[in-house]
Design brief:
CATH topology of the largest domain: Rossmann fold
Number of domains: 2
Helix content: 40-55%
Number of strands: 5
Largest sheet: 3 strands, parallel
Length: about 325
């Protein structure tokens, strides 16, 4: 019998989760949970690279966990935990900082983009973010990491650091590979379909939150930016329409071309309404279940404590091996 490969990923608790988080990540994770040793965390250490209100961070962390479970991630089939509850993440990040080069960290696209927006307030945490991400991944001998295109560069750095460490000492870390879904892996903004959907966008009409009410979802799709072509088509010249086609296809598993054919000769109004209706029905049970879970803090605590214990057991084994190889004197 072939041993299952390990898959790892996480989402920041930096606000409500979006349709992009769900279709680009969580929905894929649910489909993978039978086939892999699946480890998913809420990366709260990453979240504080920019200032956060403590009470909001605590609420958002539990809300992400509730949405994981409500979306179909079974706590009995996946390890679900909060990143800061396993101190090995921060400990390994320091070791990996000593194997990462300033030049390669400064070339990270996300660092360059975010530092432009916060030129007078760039923290070392924002700069070192990729080495913490590498620690997240490498602690669990991860084989596959579900990533969007925007995170591929960080994963490449994780691979480089793993190989650098392995070459200097001896094989220690598994070198992870990316797992990228073919359709809907990147959900775009409804107001600027050339940009990724993000909850940090100033325009609330640009994103759909998992806890948005049906009326809000319908309103946002009706206001979605399209184009002047006027015909539903799947082409780069129609990024707004292409984005909505990807959304419908990802949710319904109906081939994109079949959806295009159904709208032959029709305008955008009906198409926007159908997209909204598909999203509303997909998110309705998730929103309702997440609301119930958020009222049961004892259950959520049981899940994240159990998950942290399982994650800790794996992570500590890796960290002990790393400490020994770099020459630290063992505590016991």
């Amino acid at each position: 019998m072939t041993e299952k490969k390990t898959i790892f990923s996480g989402i920041q608790p930096s606000g409500g989760l979006t349709l992009g988080n769900y279709l680009g990540a969580i929905k894929n994770w649910v489909s993978l949970q039978e086939s892999y040793n699946s480890i998913y965390c809420i990366v709260d250490l990453h979240a504080i690279t920019v200032p956060k209100e403590p009470k909001d961070l605590r609420h958002n962390t539990l809300e992400v966990l509730a949405n994981y479970i409500a979306s179909g991630l079974d706590p009995d089939k996946n390890i679900l935990f909060i990143q800061s509850h396993v101190s090995a993440h921060a400990e390994l990040a320091w070791i990996l900082d000593c194997f990462a080069y300033i030049g390669e960290l400064s070339r990270m696209t996300q660092f360059k983009d975010k530092s432009k927006k916060n030129e007078g307030n760039i923290t070392a945490g924002l700069f070192n973010y990729p080495t913490l991400m590498a620690a997240d991944i490498l602690l669990y001998n991860t084989d596959l990491v579900p990533v969007g295109e925007d995170q591929r560069q960080h994963l490449e750095l994780s691979r480089d650091i793993a190989q650098r460490f392995n070459n200097r000492f001896s094989p220690t870390f598994a070198v992870p590979e990316p797992y990228i879904s073919k359709v809907g892996a990147k959900v775009m903004s409804l107001q600027d379909p050339t940009s990724k959907m993000s909850k940090s966008d100033d325009n609330e009409n640009s994103y759909i939150l998992l806890n948005d009410k049906p009326d809000d979802i319908m309103r946002k799709f009706k206001r979605a930016v399209t184009d002047s072509i006027g015909v539903v088509g799947y082409q780069d010249e129609q990024p707004g329409i292409k984005n909505m086609l990807d959304i419908i296809s990802k949710i319904t598993e109906e081939p994109v071309q079949r959806i295009v054919d159904r709208y032959s000769g029709k305008g955008y109004a009906d198409f926007k309404v159908e997209t909204a209706e598909v999203v509303i029905e997909e998110l309705r049970p998730i929103r309702e279940e997440a609301e119930k879970l958020m009222k049961d803090k004892e259950y959520l605590q049981k899940i994240y404590q159990s998950g942290a214990e399982k994650a800790e057991e794996i992570a500590r084994k890796t960290l002990r091996k790393v400490y020994k190889k770099v020459g630290f004197v063992p505590r016991y």
